[in-house]
Amino acid sequence: MGRFKQIMNKLFPIVLALLFFGFMFCQQVESDGILYLGYGQPSSLSIEESNENTSVIGFMWYVQRANAHIGLEYAKEGTLLSSTWGRNDAIEQGSSTNLSFSGTLPLKIKDTKATIGFLIGSRVVKRYCPSGDSFLGLECYAGEDAKSVRKPNVGMLFTTRHKKTIIGLRHTSESSQIMLGFKLPLFE
Question: Are 124 and 80 in contact (CB under 8 A)?
Answer without folding.
Answer: yes
